[in-house]
What does this fold into?
Amino acid sequence: RDQARPRRHGRLRRLLRSVQRHPLPWNIQGWQGTPVVSFADIAAAGGPADQWDALSTPAKLQILGVIGFLEMWSETSVVLKADGQEHYVRGGKPGYYPSFQGRMPHPVPLDLWDPFGFTKQMAPERKEKALLAEINNG
It folds into this structure.
């Protein structure tokens, strides 16, 4: 039950680390008079706190808005029940992330968790081993 948050945060951390190691080649476009900031400018700012400070306020709000939406989506009982799940505090599966398919007003090509369906083909023993590795590695 208490494994859901560390698993979710570990996945987010791995995603952000991947983006940090492999920066994208384009600029973040300015919004309503804010300056255009390149990924090189952000990387040259220093550590993570300095990089956050190098972002414009609209960019920070966009990041926080997307993370807030994803958190809300994963915690909403109605969405979980549509997948036949319960919230992890009420006996559901820790770390489960509900599907976007057929629930958005526009097409969403891939789900956030297991977008290509690799884990659906795994044997239960392999899934258990991968879950233990994910919990241990954060």
Q: What stands out?
A: The mean pLDDT is 78. The longest strand covers residues 27-28.
